[in-house]
Amino acid sequence: MSETNPAATAPVSADAAPHRYTAAMAAEIEARWQDFWDAEGTYTAPNPKGDLAGDPELVARPKKFIMDMFPYPSGAGLHVGHPLGYIATDVFARFQRMTGHNVLHTLGFDAFGLPAEQYAVQTGTHPRVSTEANMKNMVSQLRRLGLGHDKRRSFATIDPEYYKWTQWIFLQIFNSWYDDEAKRARPIDELVAQFDSGERAVPGGRTWSALSEAERADVLGEFRLAYASDAPVNWCPGLGTVLANEEVTADGRSERGNFPVFKSKLRQWNMRITAYADRLLDDLDQLDWPEAIKLQQRNWIGRSEGARVDFPVDGERITVFTTRPDTLFGATYMVLAPEHPLVEKFTPAAWPEGTREAWTGGHATPTEAVAAYRAQAASKSDVERQAEAKDKTGVFIGAYATNPVNGEQVPVFIADYVLMGYGTGAIMAVPAGDQRDFEFARAFELPIRCIVEPTDGRGTDTATWEDAFASYDAKIMASSNDEVSLDGLSVVEAKERITEWLERTGAGEGTVNFRLRDWLFSRQRYWGEPFPIVYDEDGIAHPLPASMLPLELPEVEDYSPRTFDPDDADTKPETPLSRNEDWVHVTLDLGDGRGPRRYRRETNTMPNWAGSCWYELRYLDPHNSEQLVDPEIEQYWMGPREGLPHGGVDLYVGGAEHAVLHLLYARFWSKVLFDLGHVSSSEPFHKLFNQGMIQAYVYRDSRGIAVPAAEVEERDGAYYYQGEKVSRLLGKMGKSLKNAVTPDEICAEYGADTLRLYEMAMGPLDVSRPWDTRAVVGQFRLLQRLWRNVVDENTGELSVADVAESDIDAGTLRALHKAIDGVRQDLEGMRFNTAIAKVTELNNHLTKVGGPVPRSVAERLVLLVAPLAPHVAEELWRKLGHESSVVHQDFPVADPAYVVDETVTCVVQIKGKVKARLEVAPSISEGDLEKAALADEKVVAALDGAGIRKVIVRAPKLVNIVPA
Question: I need a labelling partner for 955 at 20 to 30 A (CA). Which of 479, 610, 818, 890 fits?
Fold first, then answer.
C-alpha cells in the first residue's frame, strides 16, 4: 500500500537538532562500521590449525558453529522476507561471541540448479555469468544488513575447487558397500577380497575368478552405495529430465514448471540410502529438532515389521511383503505394480483357457492388455493411483501363482493401486481384510474369504458384506493346513506362528520393510556437477582417480536438454553434455596399469541437492586442496561431545520445507563419510530451528491478477488500485505477486539497524507474521531514543553522567538488572521479540527518569543492544570512550539482588473471594504472611468476628481463609 515514513521523509527545519539520529546518519554510521569490520577481520573465527588458525585465546574458548540453510542466488534479489533467518542467526552469533564463545558463522551459495539454466536457455547467457551476477548482488544486499559472517570461509557450489570434493565424495560412496552385519559402510575393495577368498559367496554360485570383468561389475553394482540401474523413474518430458519422488507434486506434476510426470524405465544413477534406513530413524531420537520435522522424516522412511512371502510361478517366484502374514489363508489373488520388472516374464502369449472376459480388458492377448494398461497407468500420479474413492482398474496378466500356505492357484493382475515405491511392488490380496482389495475383488468377480471372526455382527458370509472387515482384536478362523493352524489365535499369536512356519519351510521370513526408496541421483541437465565416471567399450563404469578432479563442466553452445511434448510419455532424455563429442569421448590413463584407453563420459549431471549435502564441512576448512577437511579441524567444530552424541552443527536455521529432501540426504552423506573414517560426526546438524515466514498482503483486481501493493490505497476499509476496488489476501511475498518490499528500500528510509530490530520484534521467530511497512517506524524511534539517552542531539557530545554505582537510584538499577537478566535469557532462547521489548522498557525508563544517564548504565544498555542493532551500538560504544569493538565485549551480567522484585502482591481470599491485596517481601515466611493477612483491616472487617477453621498459605502470593 502507499505508505511513507514521516520521520524519514519530512523536511528538516532549520532549527532541527543537527546531531539527531536520522536515516542519513544511520546510513553513514552503518557503511563506516561495515568497512571497519571488513578491514579488521572482526568476525574471523580461528581454527585450531591450518591457514585459518588464529588467536589461541579464542580457540581455547567453547566453540559455537551456527549455520543458515544454503541460499540460492536468485536474479530477483532479496525481499524483506529472505533475511529473516540470517538476521536471527546473526543476533544469536553476536550474543554467543559476547558470552565467551569462538563463533563460526558464515554464508555461501547453493548455485547449481534449474533457474540459472532456464535463464541461460532463454537468453543465451552462460549460467555461470548470471549466477555470479546474482551472487554479487545478494552479497551487497546482505552486507548492508551488517551480518557478521566470516567472509574468508564463503564459497559457491559452482566453484570447481568446491565441486571437486562433491565429486570426490561421490566416488567414496561409489567405492563403498553397506555391511549389514557390521552395520556400516566399508570400502568396496574389502567386499572384492571376501568374494575372491571365498569368505563370502558370490551371488549365482560361481567363483570370483571365473567371472568376466563385466560380470564382476554387475555383481558389485548390486552392493555399491552409488550404482547405475535400469529402474522405473519419474520422467518429465516437458523439462526433459527425470525427477526424484520428492520433486513430484501430489497431483503427479513437476514441482518446477508444473509439467506432467510419467513412469518410465531408464538407466540412472542411484544412491542406496535405503541401507541406512534404520540408522536414519534411530538417530533422530538424539537430535534437537522440532518434533514435526522428526515425524515427517519417520513417516517418509516408513518402517514397518512383517514378513516376506514367496509365491511360486512356473519355477520362478513373486515375493511380497506383508505386515499381516496371519491373513495368508485369505489371499485369493495377487497384484503387481504395472511397472514391476516381472510382468514381462510372467505374461504369456495367449490367454489361459477359461480366462474370464472381465479380466482381459477386452484385449485379444495378455501382451496387448498389459501394454495398454501400463500406458494408462503411466499417466497417473501416485496419489491419483491410490485414491480411495476411485474405481479399481486392472488387468489379468495371464499367469497364476501358488499360495504357499494352501497350494491354491491365484490369478496375477496388474493394477495401478499397487506402487513399486512400497514393499516389493507386489501384494497378496486379502479382500476380506482390505478395502481396496475388497473393491477390486467385487469389480473382477474374485473370491472373498472370511479369515477372522467378525466382531460387528456381520456374520461370515462375505456375499452379504458391504465393505471389508479388518481388526487386530478378532480371532483367526479358517486358517490351517496339515502343518500349521492359526484357528482361534489372536492376530499377534497368529503372526508369530505363521512367520515361524514360513521360515521353517523356506517360503518366507520375518523382515522389516521401509517406505524409503533409493535416491535417484541423475539429472539430464547442464548446470550441475559432472559425474566423475567414464565407461569403457564394454559399458563398464570406471571412477576417475582423485588426481583428475575436479572434472569441470565443458563450455557448450546449447544449455537446454531436449524437451518434448509434455504429454508424450514415450520420449527419452537427451542431455546437453551428450552433444559435446570432444568432451564425451576421451582417451585417458586411469592409472590402473592398462595405459591409455578410449572412454565415454557420463553425460548426466548430479542433482542440485548434491552440493548442499556436505557444505557444513567446507565451511570448516574452505581452502584445503589436499583433504575434504582436516580431521582435527572437523573434530574441533563438529565432533561429538556432551549433549551432542552424534556431533554436528550447534544451530542450523532454515525453513521447514526442507524436512525430507535436503535434511535426509545430508544425513545420509554424513553417515557414509563417518563410516569411512573421514569425519567424526555422524550427523550434520545437531540442533535445527525452523523460522516462520514473513507474509504480505496480495491485492488482486476483478480478473484475479495481482496489482502493485505499493500503489493500493485504503479508503473506508476498502482497497483501490487506480480507482478500481481490489481484493486483499495475506500470502507470500514475492516479485510475481507485486507485493515485495526490498531490504534496500527499508535501509534507505530507516537504516539497517531498524530493519533488523523490526524483523526480530515482529513476533516469535518460528511463527509466520505479516509485514507492515508503517510499523517499522516504531523501531526507528526506539533507536532515536537510545541515541538521545547517550548523545546530545545539539552538540553531538556525550550526555552521560559519570556517577558511582552507589549513587544511581535504586529504581534505575532494578530496571537495568532486570533487563540484563531478561534479555540474556531471551537471546539464549532465541526469543528476540521479547528481548527487544525488555530493551525498550529499560530505554523508556531512562527517558522517563530524565537527566543525564549514568555512564555505567548507558554502557550496559549499549551492550544489550549490540547483538540486535550492531552499527548504532558500535558507534555509541566508541563515543563512550572505548577503543575496542563492541563485538567481542562481555555481555552484561545481572546482579541477583536487583532482579528480585522489592515486593510482590499477595492476594487474600475468604471463601474463595478476594478481600484484600498485600504488598509483601518476596522472601516472607508463611507464618509472617499469615499474621499480616489476619491483621489487615479489610480482612478483619470481612470476617466480622467469625471464627477461622483453616488458613491456607502459599507464600508469597496467596492466603486463603476458611471461616468456621
Answer: 818
Beta bridge partners of 64: 103
Whole-structure pTM value: 0.85
Cβ count near 689 (within 10 Å): 19
> What does each C-alpha distance from 604 to 169, 267, 394, 532 come to in angstroms?
17, 11, 35, 11
CB of 815 closer than 8 Å to CB of 842 = yes
Under the banding of pLDDT at 50, 70 and 90, the label for residue 823 is: very high
- Calpha distance 643→159 (Å, rounded): 35
Contact status, residue 648 vs residue 620, Cβ threshold 8 Å: no
Are the CB atoms for 779 and 842 separated by under 8 Å?
A: no
Q: Is residue 240 within 8 Å of 257, Cβ to Cβ? A: no
> 901 with 953: CB under 8 angstroms?
no
Q: Please name the residue ranges forming H helices in 797-943.
A: 810-828, 832-849, 855-865, 870-879, 896-899, 926-935, 937-943
Please, what sign has the CA dihedral across residues 937, 940, 944, 945?
Answer: negative
Instruction: Determine the Cα–Cα distance for residues 190 and 213; give it in Å rounded to an integer.
Output: 17
| The amino acid at 353 | E
Distance CA 278, CA 512 (A): 10
Length in residues, the chain: 964
User: How many Cα neighbours within 13 Å face the side chain of 781?
Assistant: 10
Is the pLDDT at 12 greater than 50, yes or no?
Answer: no
Which one-letter amino acid corresponds to residue 456? D
Q: Which domains does the chain have, with CATH numbers?
A: 23-167+610-690 (3.40.50.620), 185-276+519-601 (no CATH), 303-514 (3.90.740.10), 902-963 (3.10.20.590)
**What average pLDDT does the segment 312-332 reach?**
95
3-state secondary structure 452-477: ECCCCCCCCCHHHCCCCCCCCCCCEC
| Residue 288, number of CB atoms within 10 A of its CB | 15
- Could you write out the DSSP letters of every residue in 11-32? PPPTTS-TT---HHHHHHHHHH
Q: Is 194 helix (H, G, I), strand (E, B) or coil?
A: helix
- 894: how many CB neighbours lie within 10 A of its CB? 18
Structure confidence at residue 935 as a pLDDT band (50, 70, 90): very high
CB count within 10 Å of CB 166 equals 25
613, three cell numbers = 549435502
Residues 740, 773: Cα–Cα separation, whole Å: 11
Give the cell for residue 723: 480507482
H helices within 691-803, ranges in order? 743-750, 752-761, 777-788
Amino acid identity of 547? S
Please, what sign has the CA dihedral across residues 327, 332, 337, 343? Answer: positive
CA dist., res. 446 & res. 359, Å (int): 10
- The helix or strand, by DSSP H or E, that contains position 291, with its residue range, turns out to be helix 291-301
765 by Cβ neighbours in 10 Å (0-12 / 13-18 / 19+) ranks as buried
Identify any residues that bridge with 266 across adjacent strands, giving them in sequence order: 231
Cell of 425: 511392488
Judging by DSSP bridges, how do beta strands 694-700 and 769-770 pair with one another? parallel
Q: Kindly tell me the sign of the dihedral angle through the C-alpha atoms of 96, 102, 107, 112.
A: negative
Q: Are 377 and 338 in contact (CB under 8 A)?
A: yes
Task: Work out the average pLDDT over 580-599.
Answer: 95
Nearest Cα to Cα of residue 564 among 264, 267, 246: 264
Q: Helix, strand, coil shares of the chain as percentages rounded to 5? A: 40, 20, 40
Give 768-784 as a DSSP string.
Answer: -EE--GGGGHHHHHHHH
CA distances to 78, 321, 364, 777 from 767, in Å: 20, 42, 60, 22
Amino acid residing at 278? D
What one-character-per-residue DSSP string does 364-416 give? Answer: SSHHHHHHHHHHHHHTS-HHHHT-TTSPP--EEEEEEEE-TTT--EEEEEE-T
Mean pLDDT across 139-150 = 96
pLDDT of residue 389: 55
- Decide if pLDDT at 6 tops 50: no
